[in-house]
Amino acid sequence: MTATRTKLVIRNAKPKDIAAIRPLYEKVYGVADGYTVDQIAGQINKFPDGQFVAEFEGQIVGHCVTFVINSGTALSQHTWNEITGGGFAARHDPEGDMLYGMDVIVDSEFRRLRIGQRFYKVRQDLCQWLELKGIVFGGRMPGYQRHQKEFPNPADYIEAVQASKLRDPVLSFQLRQGFEVVGVLKNYMPEDLESCGHATQMFWRNPLEQETIKAKPSLGDTSLPERVRVATVQFQMRRINAIDEFEQQVEYFVDIASDYRADFVAFPELFTLQLLSLEGKPLGPADAIARISEYTPRFIAFMERLAVSYNINIIGGSHPSRMEDGDIHNVAYIFLRDGSVHTQQKLHPTPSERSWWNIKGGEGNSVIHTDCGPIGVMICYDSEFPEIARHLVDQGALILFVPFCTDERRGYLRVRYCSQARAVENQCYVVMSGVVGNLPNVENMDIHYAESCILTPSDFPFSRDGIAADAAPNTETVAIADLSLSDLLTARQSGAVQNLKDRRFDLYRVVWK
User: Fold this and answer.
1) Residue 346 is among the residues annotated as catalytic for this protein
2) What architecture does CATH give domain 8-205?
């Protein structure tokens, strides 16, 4: 008996597929259109069961995006941007009763395989598995532009297609899949010129629907752990005589966090500048940055080894690094216990960083996929810009890490108050990690103030003051807390306030370039 390998597979999309999905949209829609990498990550992180790819002989040739929403919203007038949360599936509601079809694309070279039909079938299977009322989506009608003069009212054009007087390549296909037209969505997608900006409001009724919908599967990604233990290090800057002393200090805290079986240990911003105390005399700004950049390869190799050997995910604070173009960026390095290394550049250098070290602002702000769910990093000053946290949470981040370095209490409180606001408005956890102590012979790094802490949303499942754990001011120590991901996801759906669900996508949204 012989067997051959399956050629065509419809399966759930995974984060590792994003690199192949994005070029597919460029091919189908054009380079300037389609989803960004961050949007695709947000879709997968919000509702992994509802994202599918078609894989033909190992090549991804189709993509299907869905999410769950309440039927009242799905069956009312809406635009594509409003219903999808700007393309992130940000309005996914695990307690909803309707599946919403957000997008289906197929590589034109593989359309003979009826991949679109397969995607519609897998959506129907998902709808029945979740025991939802049905599937709704806004359908294109690309033949309408040619017949607009004949049918000024799009409803009349739809009626003509339904009566087989006209054929529309998309609408006719959707009708054959068992969908019915329940309305016209005016100005659904203004950039869709072939449909004159409008869409058909399509509905497929679940034939297995029961009057009483049974309990839904668990909130969010079933692969998420119930609880995540997080340790934040309040790191003391002190003069050292050898690089081994710095590494011993770092390894000590990683060892402590590992002994407590923490999933994450977070270090502060610019804590590696302690290495400049090795110099015999204070260095000028340019010389200091050039010197600290020399430590980058050793720092990365050392922290990567710690993450793997201690089986812990390390938020490695931040370290000034020289880029290939010669610019200096303030870069956070994230070392996961699987051995992978990720980076996040500081987007907003402070005035002192710009003037002292000529540090430039970075670009991009993407979630990092870990074995404890998606996380995000905002370096110090970045926490004071709400758009950054919102962008990360739209991608699915549940925990945001804020490595910081502040010289006195007022600077610290700016970061603290803003981080607490980010936790409340995004219903997420925020972990702050700061430096204390003094470095008299290091320019612009002489004094520090910190009260590192682990912050929560302000609601009943969490601690009364929205603080899961905190450190005493200006003391070298570690703060540890267990963070319930199920409490977080439940609060987003049914908390006293529901900031994420209640956003007015019809009025505003964050657009990331």
Assistant:
1) yes
2) 3-Layer(aba) Sandwich (3.40)
